[in-house]
User: What shape does this take?
Amino acid sequence: MHKDTNIAHLSANEAEAELIRLSSVLYRANHAYHNADAPILSDAKYDQLKQRNLSVETAFPGLKRANSPSDQIGAAPADGFSKLRHAQRMLSLGNAFTNEDVTEFDLRIRRYLGLSEQDNLTYTAEPKIDGLSLSLRYEHGMLIQAATRGDGQTGENVTENAHTIADIPKQLSNAPEILEVRGEVYMAQLDFDALNQSQTAKGDKVFANPRNAAAGSLRQLDSEITRRRPLRFFAYAWGDLSTPLAETQNGAIERLVNLGFSTNPLTRLCDGPKAMIRHYRQIEQQRANLGYDIDGIVFKVNSHALQQQLGFVSRAPRWAIAHKFPAQEEITELLDVEFQVGRTGAV
Ligand code: IVH
Assistant: This one.
């Protein structure tokens, strides 16, 4: 069977074989991306295979595998790090690739909440930072734990490393007694270029892109190496909380700013799919000049009460979606090189 065979033409046996193939490719790609910080597939190819896996499962629901890639988040924590169990799971996001997907997202939410198209419904639009997510736990205002997402349930303990990142406050005033702040560790493009130059000069590993450099720098067993790497952090979400931060996503982001966190300055409120799509286009135009990589816009229902009503499906919230930008880079596998000798003997 050709790997791009139209799903509608698959027999049940072929569909089963295709799900096995996809889960194996996606498992290897996940491990390379999350544990080795060295991707083997481009993000676009990965999304495409994940989407194909989901489409085969939708066409053949009975064949969905117990450990389907659709239900997986990231990868299990790597050896070498101690493990931390998240008090609240760190989730992933569903993807939108087209304007129609965004309109459909809004309609789905309205249907679920019993709202008409005329009812007001506000969303936040936040850049989707291309780094790696980190959960920071504060107790009585002190940073006591930092964990990577890992498989969503259990992450890697990178507490000492997080203490070396300037953007991450180590102590908070007027914070809830228990507060888990979640966000993205990333590397600015200029810092990434400088790091790779110095790695090359030392004969050390160079990184494929700023995301890999950020992940490889945070996931160091020696925190002194992390300290020398130019890592940054944007806060955008939270986990365990003793008292709510605010009644809305936007309000919670403002509260995080007041507590001393960096949040993304391009966060906006949108009053429906038209405004969401317009904002997506505007940020897409600015994307190349931001100085750091983003791979889409995340839309979230602004009201926390509505978020709670909407809840979650499998690994992602119903109330949020990531509208992805088209791929900027592709990783291509060089399969073969043919040398030809010309008439003059030149190769
Ligand atoms: S919200 C429950 N907001 O995207 C929702 N995620 O594909 C949790 N990401 O694991 C995530 N920027 O690593 C959210 N503004 C943003 C984000 C963001 C980047 C990452 C994050 C997450 C992944 C989901």
